[in-house]
Amino acid sequence: MASSFLWKRLWKHKVFYLFMLPGIVWFFLFSYVPLYGIQVAFRDFNFMGGFTGSPWAGLKYFHQFFDYYQSGTIIRNTIIISLMKLIIGFPMPIILAILLNEVNNRKFKKVVQTLSYLPYFVSWIVVITLMQRLLTPYGGPVNDAITSVFGTEPIQFLNNTSWFYQVVLGSDIWKNIGWSSIIYMAAIAGIDQQLYEAAKIDGAGRFRQMWHVTLPGIRNIAVILFILATGSLMGAGYEQMLLLNGPATTAIGSVLDVHVISSGISQGRLSYAAAVGLFQSFIALILIVTANRIARKISDVSLF
């Protein structure tokens, strides 16, 4: 009886499910089919034997990673950079969306939105190249302005441990803040305008309207996105870290993402790279499940 009712509902809304089909197929092909290759982390993989013909190695490559003298440093660097991006970078799109919502000039609002969205579509290679031109100690516009205004020596922003975290965090926020704010703008647009009118009648100013109407209106979306963001604590961003990290910043800039790619592609250690990548994914799963349980107890909002 229940199955027949389910099929009736599916058939009734068949057009909508048909629209979902390409996304489901894509997700299956690129998210579930590759799970077959996880076994590489537990095998001495070679191209002649393939996935099933390579001999089993057990936890050999996991032991190799944790016995590696730099594994602790790499994990620590990854967590520090990811925490910085999560704690400081996560609220920025929310702040931008709220501020844009308070702007009455539609032309100015559209210009700001467009300018904030554009960096997301620019590759990290272009972004880092632009930063190198802007932040170069001699001839760069940023240092020229600093020396002319304050009369100090040029600052070495890149390949400098004193400025590494600031450059990483600033470039990440600049590139992603506009795109990440879209979903919050959509959530704000869905808030009942009568709530704002009621707040005005009660004497609430614009700040109190933001605090008591806007923020509660986007709370559920923010909590869900924060839960998902906790899964990235073991991933600091491959392209950005590969391009920004140099010999002078290796001690604080070596992260798991770059280590996995360099081990697997540059060194050809596919089984080792797969083991480290699986370790990342396992920790990310634990973090998401933990954050989901905490959010469900605190705010009654959760993914599952």
TrEMBL record:
Alphabetical keyword list:
Cell membrane, Membrane, Transmembrane, Transmembrane helix, Transport
Q: Family assignment?
A: Belongs to the binding-protein-dependent transport system permease family.
Which is a Pfam family this sequence falls into? BPD_transp_1
Signal peptide residues on this chain, from the entry's feature table = none
Instruction: Describe its membrane topology.
Output: Multi-pass membrane protein
- Database matches in SUPFAM superfamilies: MetI-like
Residues crossing the lipid bilayer are 15-38, 79-100, 112-131, 217-238, 270-289
Location of the ABC transmembrane type-1 domain: 75-291
The protein's location, in the record's own words, is: Cell membrane
Which species expresses this protein natively? Paenibacillus solisilvae
What is this protein identified as?
ABC transporter permease
